Amino acid sequence: MSSVADADRVADLARQVVADHDPKKVPTPEYLAACFDAGLSWVHFPEGLGGLGVSRGLQAEADRILQGAGGPIPLSLNPMGYGMAAPTIREHAQSDELKRSWLRPLASTEHIWCQLFSEPGAGSDLAGLATSAVRDGDEWVINGQKVWTSLAHRARWGLLLARSNPDVPKHKGLTYFVLDMHAPGVETRPLRQMTGQAEFNEVYITDARIPDAHRLGEVGNGWNVAMTTLMNERSALGGSGSRRGAGTISDAVALWASRPDLQTPVLRDRLAQLWLRSEAQRLTAERSRAAATVGGPGPEGSIGKLVGAELNQHIYQWCMDLLGPEGTLYHGYGMDVGEEDGADWRGPVQQRFLRSKANTIEGGTSEVMRNILGERILGLPGDLRADAGMPWKEIPRG
Ligand SMILES: Cc1cc2nc3c(=O)[nH]c(=O)nc-3n(C[C@H](O)[C@H](O)[C@H](O)COP(=O)(O)OP(=O)(O)OC[C@H]3O[C@@H](n4cnc5c(N)ncnc54)[C@H](O)[C@@H]3O)c2cc1C
């Protein structure tokens, strides 16, 4: 089928979904389940799994119609689900039946997902993680502690990276699982951030059991499966809105328009520069999306992640500069974030400024992004890796 025919089919299906399930009237899970059934959740996924088997680039066409009719941005409702779990499940789950059983409630947002990667001693050095997975018949027994786990308190399922073999070099002894966050032995404790909200958590895992059927990829191949998750995470974090002037910059433009009393020529000039940088980032993201019409994102996702994170911080810094002393007035110091379906997580602009500080840490720090870009795109000499080739259990740990 030609791509023009594919585009027409995607557009027709999107119009049909909003005609039959008006997103302004029906409950969000029902509307998003209808999008899944029509193959519009991820148009490049196979039919029956929330897709139509067409070019990834056509997702923008579906989203334009769906969101234009008042539909929510699904990524903002189930970020780890849409951005990371879905592509990982699609590529590595053991059967189509399992894939569908996870993907439909993920897409409808009935099941929120979280990412159980980071540990107190393993963030940038993720492959050094210590949570253990020991095989016991048809099950695995998991013990360890994860940290900074966004949305674990609301999650039904977690993407878990654990060490199944301590005797081999660190990247080789990892296996990847889907953990039932309601299973016995899984305890979630909230961590309060400087915004006042508890968006992420510590997760303690004690003798929790996972059926082998819930393993993603081969035993010992967890690092490669994790790459599917991380590349998609960076791409999702770095993707700006596909509409001109959308995304974070729209907050700055709206603030400028609402406060003529605070406008100065210098702030106007800085806003114009930020708008230009946002537009350059949007076009770069579009170009990378167009290039990756099939398969997953490559290291190019790290460009969007790096640039987007720093740009977000500069935009909210500008907002604080415009507000002057008002920037210190922040009333949103509650822990209610993300508790309600469809709630706006972002709060007032002062909160967004504080939250933007995390952008250069979450999903891989800016230093790590620069290392990836230096090594994989520019071909520069690699980072120092003193533990390369050593069995994980012999690597000194603090
Ligand atoms: C808001 C937020 C949400 C998060 N959500 C999740 C989540 O849902 N799931 C999850 O698993 N994790 C999550 N994280 C964790 C995040 O992935 C880690 O914080 C991040 O990878 C950095 O790890 P670290 O905090 O251990 O810092 P470290 O790795 O200890 O880094 C400390 C400093 O050293 C620098 N550094 C480290 N190694 C190098 C190097 N090789 N070269 C140059 N500089 C280096 C870093 O850039 C940083 O400045 C979240 C973090 C934040 C802030």
From TrEMBL:
Record-stated family: Belongs to the acyl-CoA dehydrogenase family.
Pfam families named in the record: Acyl-CoA_dh_1, Acyl-CoA_dh_M, Acyl-CoA_dh_N
Residue ranges constituting the Acyl-CoA dehydrogenase/oxidase C-terminal domain according to the UniProt record: 220-378
Name of the protein in question: Alkylation response protein AidB-like acyl-CoA dehydrogenase
Top-level taxon in the UniProt lineage: Bacteria
Domain Acyl-CoA oxidase/dehydrogenase middle: residue ranges: 114-205
Cofactor requirement: FAD
Keyword Transmembrane belongs to the record: no
InterPro entries: Acyl-CoA_Oxase/DH_mid-dom, Acyl-CoA_Oxase/DH_mid-dom_sf, AcylCo_DH-like_C, AcylCo_DH/oxidase_C, AcylCoA_DH/ox_N, AcylCoA_DH/ox_N_sf, AcylCoA_DH/oxidase_NM_dom_sf, Mycobact_Acyl-CoA_DH
Residue ranges annotated for the Acyl-CoA dehydrogenase/oxidase N-terminal domain, each copy included: 16-110
Keywords, sorted A to Z: FAD, Flavoprotein, Oxidoreductase
Entry annotated with the keyword Cytoplasm: no
